[in-house]
Amino acid sequence: MTTDTTTSKTPGSAAKGATTTARPLHWTIALGGVATIAGTFLAWTYTSEFPGDLTVYGYPGGLQVLTLVTGALLVLFALSALGIKGLGWLTPAGANKPLKLLALAAFGTTWYTVLAIAVELGGLVNLEPGGFIAAVVTLIPLVALRLPDDSRQLSRPKELPSWAEILIIVGAFAVGLYAVTYGIDTEYAELFIGYLITVGFAVAALLKAGLVARFSALAAKYRTIAVIAAFIAAAAFPFTQSTDQYTLIAVNILIFATVALGLNVVVGLAGLLDLGYVAFLGVGAYTAAIVSGSTASAFDIHFPFWAAVLTGALVSLIFGVVIGAPTLRLRGDYLAIVTLGFGEIFRIVMLNLDGESGPKVTNGPNGIPNIPDLNFFGYDFGEPHTILGMELGSYANYYLLMLLAMILVVLVFSRAQNSRIGRAWVAIREDETAATAMGINGFRVKLIAFALGATLAGLAGTVQAHVQSTVVPEMYQFAGPVPPNSAFLLAAVILGGMGTISGPLLGASLLYLIPAKLEFLKDYQLLGFGIALILLMRFRPEGLIANRRAQLEYHETGQLDVPRQQKLTDDATAGAAKAEA
Q: What is the distance between the alpha carbons of residues 81 and 138, in angstroms, rounded to a whole number?
C-alpha cells in the first residue's frame, strides 16, 4: 500500500491565497498582457526586408500575430486567476503555473523576433521604436515567475447540457485544425520558429491549467463523437489549401507517422530495439513499384490498387518472419546490432540488383521510376477532383488515402495493445525472464510483434511508392538527411512516448515538419536531434506523451513507490500468463 504525499489545495483556499498575496501580481500580469497586445499594433522595423512585413502601424502581421495571441492568453488567464466571473473554467488545476509559461511565451516570441531582425538586417538600428517598446512591455508579465504554486486537484466540473459538451469537443478540434494548418502553412523559417516557441509554451500552459485533462475526460465520455470529430478535422485539411505545396508535406507526415506507429509495436510494446525498421518500409515500396505497372519494372505486372497493397504488406510480413525467426532469440544490444545489419543489407542488396552485380530486379542505384498513380474503381489519384465544390489536387487524394491507412494502423495498434497478446508484449518488455517463468512463450510473442510491425510498415510503403512516383535505395538508410529513416523513426517513438498512440504520431510530425521548414538546419539536423534526445532523456525520459506506467517508472522514486511499480509489473505479467494459458 502506498501513501500519496502530494498536497493539494481546495479551490477556496487557493482563491483566498490569490487575494491576499498574489492578487497584485495577477493585476500586473493582466496589464502586461494588455500592453503586449498593444505593442503588436506598432511597427517593429522600418524595412520590409524582414519577412512578414512588420512595418505597418495598426495591423499586426507575421510574428506579431503570435505575440498578440500570447498577450490575449495572458489577459484571459490572469483574469481567471483574479476570480472574474465566467473565466474560472480556464484554470481548474491552478493558474500560476500556466501564467508563468504564457509569460515566457510572450517574452520568447517577441525577443526572438527582435533579435532576428537585428541579426538578419545588421543591427538594432533596423528596429522602429515600436520594436523596443514591444520588447520592454513583454518584460512586465515576467513577474509571474514570482507567483507561488497554487496547483490543486481537479474537481468535478459543472454539468453542462449534452449539446454544449459536444459543441466544446467540436470547437476544440476546430481550433486544433487551425493551429496545425497554421504551422504547416508557415512560409518562412522565422515564422515557423516563432510558431514553435508560442505553441510549445501554450500547450504546456494548457496542460498545467488542467484544460487538457478536462477535455480528455470529456472526449472519453463522448468517445464516438470525439473520434468522428477528429477524423473530420483531419480530413478537412486539404480543403484549407489552395495548392499542393503544403499538402505534400502533410502526406509525408502521415506516412512517417504511420510507420512510426508500426515501429511502436516493436519498440514501445514488446521492448525490442529495432535499428533497421525502415527496411520493411522499403520492402513494401519496392514490391508496390514492381507490381504496379511501372515502365522501369523488370516484370510486366500491373496489379490493381488493392492487390498491390496486399502484396506489399504480405511480402513485408514474410520478410519480418524470415528476419525475426533467427534473430529474436537475441536480446538487448545484440538484437539491435543484428537489425541494424539487416537494414544495411537490404539497402546494399537493392543497389546490387541492377543486372550487372546481380539479377536485374531493382535497377540498382537508379531505382524504379515512373510508378503510375493509383487508380481505384476509376478514381485516378493523379488527377484533380472537385469535392464539395472545391478542387483537390493529386496530393490531396493521397492525403485522404493515407489518412484512412493511418486510421487502420491506429485501430490495429489499439486493439493489439489491449488484447491478450498485447499484455504479453508488455510483460516481455518489463521482464522477459519473469514472463517466461510465468509460462509466456517469449519467442513466439516477440515474433508476432516483429511480423505485425513489418506488415504495417509495408502497408505504408506501398502508398509511399506511388506518392513519390519513384523508389531508390538511398531513401531507406539508417540515418540520412530526409526522413523517414531508421534513426528518425526510432527518435519519433522515443520523443513522442513509447507504448502510446498519440506519442509517436506527435513525434513523427515534429521530426518531419521541423527539417521541412528549417532547411538551413539540414546539415546539422542529426546533431540537433541528438541534443534534443539528450535533453529529453534528462528532463522527460517518458516522452512528450507518456502512459501512467512510464510516468511512475521515471518520476516516482523511493521506497514508497517500489510496491506500486512492482504491482504494475506483476499485474501485467500475471495477466499475460493467464491469457497465454
A: 19
